[in-house]
Specification:
The chain has about 425 residues and is of the alpha/beta class. The chain folds into two domains: about 5-20 and about 230-415, Enolpyruvate transferase domain (UDP-n-acetylglucosamine1-carboxyvinyl-transferase, Chain, Alpha-beta prism), CATH 3.65.10.10; about 20-230, UDP-n-acetylglucosamine1-carboxyvinyl-transferase, Chain (Alpha-beta prism). It has helices at about 20-30, 50-60, 85-90, 100-105, 125-135, 165-175, 190-200, 235-245, 260-270, 310-315, 335-340, 370-385, 395, 405-410, and strands spanning about 5, 15, 40, 65, 70-75, 85, 110, 135-140, 145-150, 155-160, 180-185, 205, 215, 225-230, 250-255, 275, 280-285, 295, 320-325, 345-350, 350-355, 365, 385-390, 415. Helix 4 packs parallel to helix 6 (about 165-175). The chain binds uridine-diphosphate-2(N-acetylglucosaminyl) butyric acid (EPU). Uridine-diphosphate-2(N-acetylglucosaminyl) butyric acid binds near residues 126 and 372.
Length: about 425
């Protein structure tokens, strides 16, 4: 397995471009199943999860090609195999995103039930209950979800709990349902609005994305479109934290700051000087000292669970005590044991990590357990004394495009070690 070797102690400086957002691209690719025509996708990030999603729709019979400008062309108008096999779903839970589109367009879907993963049990009951309200007949057999419907019908659906991919699945399904669907207690993440923009560009009639209530007027057919995947706010946030903890000064380009929600304000609370200029975010931490910040994760616009592990590292090197409370996933502290091996002082108490700042941490060989945990270990490596080797970096390749290249461009000493 490949590893990353980091020599800590370099202050980051310079500029990088933000890549397309993984969590926007995945539902958009799944939503392409609804189209009867060609879809062109620009700015797709080069990530393992995107490859897996292509493998999934490819296994169903989608045509996928790359044009001379590196844009992807998809045609899903003739899928012949309406099944998402366990071998693929077990490598990427987001495979569940094809459920809504398949049942709406083809009247049938058979999808392996995603199991739990390193960060929690992650059931999909909200997705299934909501699809049943649109008239889908759902059964669970031999580890597979089977969904059938002649024609879905619009309904008023209040989600039991806020779910990002659940909201997305329902937006896709309701786009081809008969009549009006009103979704409440929905997720409000920017990726929800991205999906609405994509579906509307195909002829869907969706309003309210980004608010508490999404209204979807079903249409008969969705057409082809060309769509540019917006920038990844979590990628941007991760590099901003990297600059803050190394007392650096960086600019991230090609990111709309409005997508960043509470991340920027939290960085400012932590002592960073942050300036916004059009589609660029500038962070300067050369003059200030890190102030640990108490954090409680919450659905957007609250503090994102996908930035929790990275800010935990930031808190570890600021003076004094702080707490990080995880409210979205029940087991998202796997990075803590590894960080403590590098000399941090973190104690887990239920859903809260209690952190005592330390003067310095030291390099070690550490193991990545999930995507954002891997990011936090790399961040720790950037500030550790000596060398850090991060093992199992396939997790990082699922969600960060060319991370070692981008960090090297900012002055970090980081290389990929081959198998
Ligand atoms: N939940 C249920 N039942 C459901 C659905 C969700 O109990 O039917 C629970 C989950 O177990 C969790 C909470 O509700 O405790 C929220 O889960 P949600 O469904 O919102 O998560 P998701 O849609 O599976 C997406 C992102 C995650 C991100 C979360 C939260 C994608 C592909 N994934 O997951 O991204 O952490 O929303 O914002 O959009 C990542 O990129 O590293 C990542 C894990």
């Amino acid at each position: 397995m490949e590893k990353l070797l980091i020599k800590g102690g370099k202050s980051l400086s310079g500029q990088i471009d933000c890549s397309g957002a993984k969590n926007s691209a995945l539902p958009v690719i799944a939503a392409s199943i609804l189209s009867s025509d060609d879809i062109t996708l620009k700015n797709l990030p080069y990530l393992q999860d995107i490859t897996t999603m292509f493998e999934l729709i490819g296994s169903m019979g989608a045509d996928i090609s790359l044009d001379e400008k590196m844009n992807f062309k998809l045609n899903t108008s003739n899928l012949s195999n309406l099944e998402a096999r366990y071998e693929l779903v077990k490598t990427m839970r987001a495979s569940i995103l094809v459920l809504g589109s398949m049942v709406a367009k083809y009247g049938y879907a058979k999808i392996a039930l995603p199991g739990g993963c390193a960060i929690g049990s992650r059931p999909v009951n909200y997705h299934l209950k909501a699809l049943e309200k649109l008239g889908a007949e759902i059964s669970l057999n031999n580890g597979y979800i089977e969904a059938k419907a002649k024609k879905l019908t619009g309904a008023n659906i209040e989600f039991e709990g806020v779910t990002v991919t659940g909201t997305e699945n329902l937006m896709m399904a309701a786009s081809l349902a008969e009549g009006l669907t009103i979704l409440t207690n929905v997720a409000k993440e920017p990726e929800i609005s991205d999906l609405a923009d994509f579906l509307n560009s195909m002829g869907a009639k969706i309003s309210g994305a980004g608010t508490d209530e999404i209204r979807i007027k079903g249409v008969e057919e969705l057409t082809g479109t060309t769509f540019k995947i917006p920038a990844d706010r979590i990628e941007a946030g991760t590099y901003l934290v990297a600059a803050a903890i190394t007392n650096g000064k960086i600019t991230i380009n090609k990111i709309d700051p409005k997508r960043m929600g509470s991340i920027i304000e939290t960085l400012q609370r932590a002592g960073a000087e942050v300036n916004l200029n059009g589609n660029s975010i500038y962070l300067d931490m050369t003059k200030n000292v890190i102030k640990p910040v108490d954090i409680v994760t919450a659905p957007f616009p609250g503090f994102p669970t996908d930035m929790q592990a990275q800010f935990t590292v930031l808190n570890c090197i600021g003076p004094g005590e702080s707490s990080v409370t995880e409210t979205i996933f029940e087991n998202r502290f796997m990075h803590v044991q590894e960080l403590n091996r590098m000399g941090t002082d973190i104690t887990i108490n239920g859903t809260t990590a209690l952190i005592n700042g330390v003067d310095s941490i030291s390099g070690a060989q550490v193991m990545a357990t999930d995507l954002r945990a891997s990011a936090s270990l790399i961040l720790a490596g950037l500030i550790a004394k000596g060398e850090t080797i991060v093992d199992r970096i396939y997790h990082i390749d699922r969600g960060y495009e060319r991370i070692e290249e981008k960090l090297s461009n900012l002055g970090a000493e980081i290389i990929r070690l081959p198998n």
